[in-house]
Design brief:
The protein has 324 residues and is α+β, with helices and mostly antiparallel strands. Helix content is 61%, strand content 13%. The protein has a domain at 3-128: Rossmann fold (3-Layer(aba) Sandwich), CATH 3.40.50.
Amino acid sequence: MGVLHTLDLENFKSYKGKQVIGPFKRFTAIIGPNGSGKSNLMDAISFVLGEKATSLRVKKLGDLIHGAPIGKPVSNRCSVTLNYKEDDGRLRSFTRSVTGAGSEFRVDGKVVSVQQYNHEMESIQIFIKAKNFLVYQGQIESIAMKNPKERTALFEEISRSCELQQEYDRLKAELQKAEDDAQQNMNKRRGIAQEKREAKLERDEAEKYQHMKDELAAKQRQLYLLELFYCERHGKQAQEELASKKKQVAELEAAKVCQHQTDEQVSEKQKLVKKAQRDNHKLEKEIADKINEYVSLKREAGKRSGLMDMQLNSMRQEHETDRR
């Protein structure tokens, strides 16, 4: 890493005319009584490194010209040139000037824009926005008094990691999206694995069902063949039995006809018997009537016989009386 070699000051604050300070070593201490210009030297370094006027203890950049604060500027411009020595011994110069038209920036004597100037500063690891090159009086205590969050912000500025905040947020969002996608894919993979297991179970069940169905069809074919074999084997016997049954049916039909005729004869006989029974009953009734009539006549005859006997006895008594 390079080092600050010399500073060329021209009409900058308390440094009138052209002044060359240096060469500096890697560790250099600047000492002196109050008012000797120590702070102005610090301001010169800050100025050439790109600090704003508010950090240089002036209200405007024009006040940096020697004598301007008291209204007696010695010139219409001032400048500070920082000569930077690379590790290989090569010198580079950075010049910042204050003119009536504003600020002017030069790198190795060539006029450049402030953006190009800052870019060249960054090439030697000096980051103006991060303020990683100067520690002002009282700033050490303020750093010590910062809370962890504030110190972290300071370190981010010094390391320039804050410049990568947008990139960090973008990458973080991409990481979060990638993690979400990975989790979603994992869940999808688990779902697919579960569906695969379920599909395998369904396939196994379907294959088992098809196997059982095939076995059932085979058993049914065997059953049909056995039934066919049985039918063919016993078909002749069944035909013989059928012929025998037909013969028996014919005999039964003939017997039924004879039975029918016999039934008609029996029916006729039954009719004759019933007629004879009716005649017999009628005869019995007539006999009973005759007997009753006979009994009545006998009773009447008995009565008449008794009466006649009484009359005969009466007549016999009268005759005997007459004879006497």
